[in-house]
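Researcher: We're teaching a course module on how sequence relates to structure. For the next exercise, students receive a sequence and then see the predicted structure as tokens, so they can try to spot secondary structure elements on their own. Here is the exercise chain.
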Amino acid sequence: MLFPHTESRQIELRPAGVKDAAKVYDILFRLGHSGLPVIDRFVDTFGQGLAACFLVHRKDTGEIVGFSTLSDLSPAGHLRADVHLAGQPDEIRTDAVALTVNFAFAMWRTRKVYFHAVEAGVESLGFTEPHTAMVEAEAVLPKHMYFHGRVRDVHVFAIYRENWDAHGVDLLKHIV
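Model: And here is the predicted structure for the students to work with:
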């Protein structure tokens, strides 16, 4: 049985609500996400379609460096995870992604966690060998996203529960 860890040695995932919507908006804006609605609309709809939303806090500075979300679970047991970090080292990304994915598998009958990325390699999720083995490339959506002035492909990656059980639990032991 998995435990829904929300802390590693480096970061803490803290639940985010409507009161945090402006902070989340600022992170997305600083990262250059296009298509953001006006702030009032963003705040009004914040959290819709999400099962969980977390602010990512660095333990060494107490600074909010990003946020992560988990969509509502589909009837097939799938959900989408997103982790947005502003200018953080790979170790922070690894911890944030691992804690978010583990939370999804620990809390619900999740079969598969999806990620969308503009980079083609699974390393964009923050995983290095041997943990890249748990991530499967599922699809490429050609020219799907306009980002930083150009149209880019979106790469869809998935982590299945059985792969998380085989590789992710070991990763968690190293970071918590």
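Model: If you want an answer key for the exercise: The domain at 11-175 is CATH 3.40.630.30 (Aminopeptidase). The two ends are 16 Å apart (CA to CA).
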